[in-house]
Amino acid sequence: MATADHVKALIRSHAEGDDERFYAIAMQVAAQAARQGHTKFAQELRNLVDQAKLRAKAEPSGQRTKPVPIIQPRGELAGLLSAAFPKSRIADMALDDALRARIDRILLEQRQRETIRAHGMSPLRKLLLVGPPGTGKTTTAAALAGELSTPLFTIQLDGLITKYLGETAAKLRLIFEAIQQTRAVYLFDEFDALGGERAARNEVGEIRRVLNSFLQFLEQDDSDSIIVAATNHPQILDRALFRRFDSVIEYRLPSENVAEEVMRARLSLLDASEVNWSEALDAAKGLSHSDITRACEHAAKNAILQHHTRIDTAELVEALIERRAAHQ
Ligand SMILES: Nc1ncnc2c1ncn2[C@@H]1O[C@H](COP(=O)(O)OP(=O)(O)OP(=O)(O)O)[C@@H](O)[C@H]1O
């Protein structure tokens, strides 16, 4: 017979208009009923699912109604969250194999979350992304939203804290209520503003209190949303924080393979067949994905402005060296 988890999973999938998942859970209930000897009920359930699937097929998809998620945060939330609806994909990112495998695993667990929940477990959904600027943390949050067809809500913590020092905990509560109500990816960018040890030592104790509230909210949260905290400064994060996340994912400056992939993707609209990649890679050493992207865009624009269709290695190298100089 159906367990409480099955009923909850059925309601969730119905609310999200995810028919495939709804039918899959119904079939699990049927299988369980059959195992327990309720064969007539199991057969009836399977017939109902088959009929519903046939009806759904006959109905053009454009005419079927799907629930609409909240589009823009309103009221008090409006100042706390900014909404986006990314179309980006993980496949569009240049990632090393280990990082790609970790992100794929999150997506797999998210896509199969009802099955995982039906077995009394939780999918990976509280993520801490750490690493230098421009290495793809924000892009990953957007691509998770794109892959899972959910909105991306970004919370700028530094702004939140300086603006509403006395009320931050109350604001955080509002944010966690939204997390519970609307399945989406919630990105707490610049997370170190809240989680830093410096913050913990804050004399007034205010930020410490806020951090404690955040940790409590995070711990209590059993929603279907994905919570992503991102920071460039993991070394200043309070160690206690790390274990509150399901997954701590480390971002690094790109390896040569990844750097070349970023360059090739960024230059793909022009002819890069004569680029000397080893020279370009030398010039790209130590640069982030973001720096390399910008240098490639600069070199591509130069080519376009000069009515060239081909990327010139010297110009690309110069653009990369300029990016490096900008950091010194
Ligand atoms: N893995 C990647 N593959 C391709 N492009 C990337 C990748 N990572 C970053 N980029 C490029 O760099 C830009 C900035 O990256 P992003 O904002 O994701 O970095 P970040 O790690 O969040 O940086 P910050 O910590 O400064 O917020 C992206 O818009 C994208 O153009």
UniProtKB/TrEMBL annotation:
Q: Which Gene3D superfamilies match?
A: P-loop containing nucleotide triphosphate hydrolases
**Which ranges carry the AAA+ ATPase domain?**
123-255
The record's section on Pfam families has:
AAA (PF00004)
- This chain belongs to the protein called ATPase
Q: What is the lineage of its organism?
A: Bacteria, Pseudomonadati, Pseudomonadota, Alphaproteobacteria, Iodidimonadales
Q: Which domain of life is it from?
A: Bacteria
Q: Which organism is it from?
A: Iodidimonas muriae
Which InterPro entries does this one have?
AAA+_ATPase, AAA_ATPase_domain, ATPase_AAA_core, P-loop_NTPase
